[in-house]
Amino acid sequence: MSQNPFIPPPNPSAPLLFIYDADAEPGGYVNSPDLKVHYVPVRGGLSGLQTALAELVQKGETYQHCVVEADGAPGNVFFGGEAMNFSNMPIYLNPGLGLERIFPLPSRIYFNGDHIADPLIRSRYKWPGKVEDLPDTGTVWDFLDAAAKIFLKRGGGVTFASSGMTIGHGHRYHILSDTCWSLWGPGGKFLEHYTT
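Now predict its structure.
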């Protein structure tokens, strides 16, 4: 892993923002006052994601650690069966929403879903539609960079995702996978890509 000083170290005392696709996980999670985790269920696809994030901005909530847990595919996460990737992320999570205010300090944002960081190999994952309907998703770097440009413009930090399948219902655990990291400095300055 990079020894770059802009990578925020894990901070166990900082609250965790846990955003998840509630359409795919209808049982959901329960916020607990003794655990420093704020669960944000997203219903209604990408419009629901936009609404949930805008509410965090309106409330003035800030975080340094975030997990986005949803079904995945190379360079994509799905909310309500709708794919979000580098090409439509700036549309749904547009600069006018001020989403960078959620992460004003160096932050870590993990996209947890199947194959998000895999190279685009269509046969290695399930796509909700036909394989030929797959949009141009670019590379994992395009996806992670698009997210960093939106969320890490102020304090910088890292966006990351894993390549393999996940196991588990509810929280997902990666097995036999690599992790791709996109590192950004304060002010939205790109620093480096690396894989572990």
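The mean pLDDT is 81.
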